[in-house]
Amino acid sequence: MRPGLILSWALIVLVALWALVPGVFTGYDPIAGIPAEKLRAPGPGHLFGTDAVGRDLFARVVHGAVNSLSGAFVAVAVGLVLGTLLGLVAGSVRGALDEIVMRVVDVLLSVPGLLLALTVIILLGPGTVNVAVAVGVGSVASFARLARSEVVRVRRTDYVEAAFGSGGRFAAVLWRHVLPNSLVPVVALAALQFGVAILAISTLGFLGYGAEPPTPEWGLLISEGRNYLATAWWLTTLPGTVVVAVVLAASRISRSIGREDG
Amino acid sequence: MSLLEVHDLTVSYTRRGRWGRPHARPAVHGVSFAVEPGEVVAVVGESGSGKTTTAQAVIGLLPPNGRLDGGRILLGGTDIAGWSQRRLQAVRGAQIGLVPQDPANSLNPVKPVGVQIGEALRIHRRGDRRTITRRVVELLERVGLPDPEVRARQYPHELSGGMRQRVLIAIAVALAPRLIIADEPTSALDVTVQKRILDLIDDLRAESGTAVLLVTHDLGVAADRSDRMVVMKDGRIEERGATRAVLGAPQAAYTARLLRDAPALRAPRFLSTEVTEAVEAVEAVEVPEAAGAARAAAATGATGPTGPTGTGAVCEPPEPAVVVHDLVKEYRAGGRPFRAVDGVSFEVPRGTTHALVGESGSGKTTTARMVMRLAEPTSGSVAIGGAETAGLRGARLRALRRDVQLVYQNPYGSLDPRQSIADIVEEPLRNFGLGDRPARRERVRELLDRVALPAAVLGRRARELSGGQRQRVAIARALAPGPRVVVLDEAVSALDVSVQAQILDLLGELQRDLGLTYLFISHDLAVVRQISHTVSVMSKGRIVETGTTRQLFENPGHAYTRALLAAVPGTAHRPAGQDGTAHRLPAREGAARRLAGQEAGR
Amino acid sequence: MSGSARYLLSRAGQAALVLWAAFTAGYVLLQLLPGDAILIKFQNPELGLSPEQIAEIRSYYGTDGPGAYLHTLLGFLRGDFGYSIDTGTPVAERLAEGLPATAKLAGAAFALAVLIAVAVAFASCHTRLSRLRGALQAVPSLFVSVPAFWLGIVLIQVFSFRLRLVPVIGGSELQQLLLPVLTLAVPISAPIAQILARSLDQVRTQPFVPVVAAKGASPGWILWRHVARNALPPTLTVAGLTFGELIAGSVVTETVFGRNGVGRLTEQAVNAQDTPVLLAVVVLAATVFVLVNLVVDLLYPVLDPRLRRAVA
């Protein structure tokens, strides 16, 4: 394992712990502020500084992890399950069904992810779960395409033909050979999409379709900090840096999946 | 003064380890040899011997992770080993030309070939645009391409493999260099094309007095084409000297083993059974009577047992294990029907090996796939052990799979990378429900022992094994359901000669012990001569000639067969005196096991 | 001729099919919202529509069932996208207002993105210093991990508030365009740089490269005359795919910088549940995407002679 990869895993584990046991990392309340300590710059007392109503920004980032992470999990789950299923069916059955599925995927791909998400939001209404689902729907097409191309690739290999040649039934060969060998790149995409979903969820949160204030969602934090650009740089810069770091870590881990040297 | 003198050349490759730390691994140690003006020096070795690395070092084109650690490379007396890339640019092309390994990918796909030949002249500023255009046409003509003006404007994909290699030779000789490095120049080509390309290199050398450093894995090619040779193994020189002397009386044990294992240089001995002898007695050579005659003769019992054969062939009139009749496979290419296989018929007597020989595109693999029912014939019939296979579906088709098994060419692609060796070999047993789990595990152990693999490989993945070991695993898997017929599709073509010899010995041993019938698909006539009883020669989807191996090799009836035989490299240097003696199957079980053990221990 | 004409027709047909399907899917989805409610909304006196306008809208949305679908489809083909629920004005009018500004922003951002991508990819491919190479290779992953809205905010903070190089309000058109273009370009340059760098590396390992080197060619000659040309097709494909992101990115960028355009219109439409506007934007985005990628597909045989035979 390379140092960068170790760092990436460490960061993801840290953020996961923020989501699970935020109290261990900060004693401050993320919702109730101390007006006397408003707009303090980052320092020993407040690692990330405080906002306009005196809330500790680090506490808000730590407590916000659960929103971003769970949203990203839901989004990836939606994309992974729906997309992989579509791709698997298309790739293993082929024929007319394959054609239909792939044309549907073409249509989904022709609409940019954010617009697709906005369409889903206009139907379902705003909210954290809806945003997560909306982002997930946007990734169905990529999962479907990758899963299908992997299945098609693996089905052409000699070892799959050899499995049929040694008396394997269709379902057994699919389960024993095609599925395990096509899944690695799909898992790598899932890791990458985890980062992409965090980005998309924070974008939708920023636009105001996700969590309601004063929930400490990362995108919303940055949005709220916009009003203090001239006076309190940390309100936007620091939460954004956390988002960038988490997304970078996810993409680094994604690249290591399926490669032996990491 | 020698044209090229290499002294004590040492090259290493740097790889990154588990924790990202680079470590250097030597690939060539202390290699020294010389090339005199106008001569051909062959560098011979198996994969991993460092032969290609040596050639790359001479022209200064090591891969990015390769490093020249020491030694001198004297080109016309000047040491170029320490030269910068910029200085070497003036040498490349002008003084040293390169003919690469893989004509399919060695030309830029998006530029016309004329431009790519002219580029060598442009880089070294030899003449203006008009002169270069004229010179390109001359060069194309000189390497024997018809319509050179038309060819110059064509893209690489519009030319055949042989034509592309001619273009690459034109590039190499464009500036009349004193030395040409030919790195496996013909290993990707069919034998008849290979012969023509090697002839061309010989002609150009004779015309211009260019020396050639010929890198090859093929002892036959080295034997036919070189004045002197250098034998390499594991980055070191095992032996060097005049080709005739090395072949005649090898000094190093390794060279002797290579010579013994190289099928082209082995003394010919033909396998025989009652069936082949019956055919030879009848002397039927014409197509398609040969196979029929063989069966007729055998069926009437015209010839009785002719002594201990040591094969699994039975003494009573044998019924053919495989009967293929008038097999056709038609594809539609751009609306026009194309017959990949066009009326192929042959029979394989039980317990014998029938080889389908042909060059690429001859339809031999498609035929094998139809015998396996992995491809559907357009028309014609296949019978395995007397049972028609056409139209079988579901359970009946799976039952057929118990009788016929396939071993693939590529031992890397035919084993699931995620399965353990135990799971791979067990899979057919599970599929056919043969025995409970402990019984199956026991059978897997037996099978691995049968193919001379240690039990230690059971838990490993395919990528942890060598190429020869993988092919043994593939053979064990094919044997698992207890088939009567095994189709071997170029099953030894991807292996180094010494490993190839071991696998061929194993296959012979298994045939004798288990009475297996083989359908052996190959482009390699030398291998075919060694392993098969009867042969069909295929060309453009048709069988042009069928006969016993001896008939075909000693008295080929068809012009195409003769051309193929003449093209086999190494024929000029075969040890004389042993020809014409028909040998029984060699009994070399012990040797096979010993060698397999060595391989596993590596 | 007939071969390539057939190829062109079949690709154009596929593109049309995808567009039709995108429209239909959007239409069906947005029909899930109760239709009568839409008509009631238009009667809201706050919109200040005249009785004639309401009658006009009623005649547009008045029909039901398959008739309504056909009516809307024909409308879209004529460039008539219905009426905004938010303002009661024709959607086409609102789109036409926003389009020039967005086109300017997106066009400039795309050009800048390509410039950044080419610079990063070639620099990382050409440099011999392994540290610099490693740093340059990490640039695309960094760029793709940066939320566009946050990048915009940081740029405003640095260039407008700290360095005072770009005024927050006012300033020349160029100054106003500078930061939004940068914001939009950075995330889009990442995938292009990534695929270009990867293709360059891949092409460089192909067997024809040592053959060119053996002719005596310099590294620069090899890179520019052989490698770059072969790395172009996959890069073009990815560049085509980023056009979708360009439209999505303009939603964020225009919101952050308070610019008017199609992106801003989209954001307002979602807030107001203005489904006709959103449907029009979705169809517009899909059209741009499909057309650009159609052009890319048709360019492929021009760039790669191996595809010409398959086409002709």
From TrEMBL, chain A:
The ABC transmembrane type-1 domain, residue ranges: 65-254
Transmembrane annotation, as ranges: 72-93, 100-123, 129-147, 186-211, 231-250
Subcellular location: Cell membrane
Topological type in the membrane: Multi-pass membrane protein
Keyword terms: Cell membrane, Membrane, Transmembrane, Transmembrane helix, Transport
Record InterPro entries: BP-dependent_transpt_permease, MetI-like, MetI-like_sf
UniProt cross-references to PROSITE patterns, sorted A to Z: ABC_TM1
UniProt xrefs under CDD domains: TM_PBP2
Main location: membrane
Protein family per UniProt: Belongs to the binding-protein-dependent transport system permease family.
Protein name: Peptide/nickel transport system permease protein
Originating species: Nonomuraea roseoviolacea subsp. carminata
TrEMBL record, chain B:
Keyword Nucleotide-binding in annotation: yes
SUPFAM superfamilies in the record: P-loop containing nucleoside triphosphate hydrolases (SSF52540)
Key word Cell inner membrane present: no
InterPro entries listed in its UniProt record: AAA+_ATPase (IPR003593), ABC_transp_ATP-bind (IPR050319), ABC_transporter-like_ATP-bd (IPR003439), ABC_transporter-like_CS (IPR017871), Oligopep_ABC_C (IPR013563), P-loop_NTPase (IPR027417)
Segments forming domain ABC transporter: 4-259, 322-565
UniProtKB keywords: ATP-binding, Nucleotide-binding, Transport
Molecular function, one GO term: ATP binding
A Pfam family hit: oligo_HPY
Organism superkingdom: Bacteria
Family per similarity comment: Belongs to the ABC transporter superfamily.
Entry protein name: Peptide/nickel transport system ATP-binding protein
Provenance organism: Nonomuraea roseoviolacea subsp. carminata
Lineage of the organism: Bacteria, Bacillati, Actinomycetota, Actinomycetes, Streptosporangiales
UniProtKB/TrEMBL annotation, chain C:
Gene3D superfamilies reported for this sequence: MetI-like (1.10.3720.10)
Bilayer-spanning residue ranges: 12-33, 105-123, 135-157, 177-197, 277-300
PROSITE patterns: ABC_TM1 (PS50928)
Compartment(s) where it occurs, according to its Swiss-Prot or TrEMBL record: Cell membrane
Main location: membrane
Alphabetical keyword list: Cell membrane, Membrane, Transmembrane, Transmembrane helix, Transport
PANTHER family per the UniProt record, alphabetical: DIPEPTIDE TRANSPORT SYSTEM PERMEASE PROTEIN DPPB-RELATED
Similarity-based family: Belongs to the binding-protein-dependent transport system permease family.
Membrane topology: Multi-pass membrane protein
Boundaries of every ABC transmembrane type-1 domain copy: 99-300
CDD domains the record matches: TM_PBP2
Protein name: Peptide/nickel transport system permease protein
